Write a sequence for this structure.
């Protein structure tokens, strides 16, 4: 990619990783007014120089594009995409839509095995009811499977089977440091809403092989078009 603009700065003799669709590697980069105006071979890019151009010899070093941390938790997002029930809104429009997806996963899952639903932050506000499914509703579709609905990394909504496994009852149950167990103000019964229990819930961890499989699926589905 060569421009007709003259460059204020030229970086050459490098290994320039472009990250374009062809994964091409260039040798030099031309910069003008703080923006990259051309990428190519040393010969191509040096044609854009002028007596005022500053030249920087990279001496074979690797040059990468600037990265922006989008805080996407690639590993978690990939595993969620591949293994968890989709609790996002969209595609879900209501609590009923989410319960249908959970019910379908229950039919495919052995009794006693965990079912995890991954949502997006504040997704509940987009649902028709302006809330996520509650413990009673989760119990109705998954009476014999522990269910954890992750509304975020900090808030979890679980069913009775999950509470049983964690040892949270009307009279017992201790949250982790900084955590919280929401209880009915009158009965003291746990409502199923937990705070900061993500590391405490006994959800089986993923293997390296499972994570690799999920990452490949995520990249193929979402980024390679």
């Amino acid at each position: 990619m060569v421009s007709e603009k003259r460059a204020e700065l030229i970086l050459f003799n490098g290994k320039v990783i472009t990250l374009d669709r062809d994964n091409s590697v260039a040798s030099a980069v031309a910069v003008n007014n703080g923006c990259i105006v051309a990428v190519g071979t040393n010969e191509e890019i040096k044609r854009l120089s002028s007596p005022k151009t500053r030249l920087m010899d990279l001496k074979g070093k690797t040059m990468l594009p600037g990265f922006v941390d989008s805080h996407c938790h690639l590993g978690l997002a990939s595993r969620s995409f591949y293994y968890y029930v989709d609790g996002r809104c969209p595609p879900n429009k209501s609590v009923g839509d989410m319960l249908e997806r959970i019910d379908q996963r229950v039919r495919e899952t052995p009794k006693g095995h965990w079912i995890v639903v991954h949502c997006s932050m504040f997704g509940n506000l987009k649902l028709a009811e302006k809330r996520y499914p509650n413990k009673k509703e989760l119990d109705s579709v998954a009476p014999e499977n522990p269910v954890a609905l992750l509304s975020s990394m900090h808030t979890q909504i679980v069913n009775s089977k999950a509470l049983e496994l964690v040892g949270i009852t009307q009279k017992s149950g201790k949250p982790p440091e900084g955590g919280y167990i929401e209880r009915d103000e009158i009965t003291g019964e746990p409502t199923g809403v937990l705070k900061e229990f993500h590391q405490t819930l006994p959800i089986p961890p993923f293997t390296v092989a499972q994570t690799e499989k999920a990452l490949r699926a995520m990249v193929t589905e979402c980024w390679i078009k």
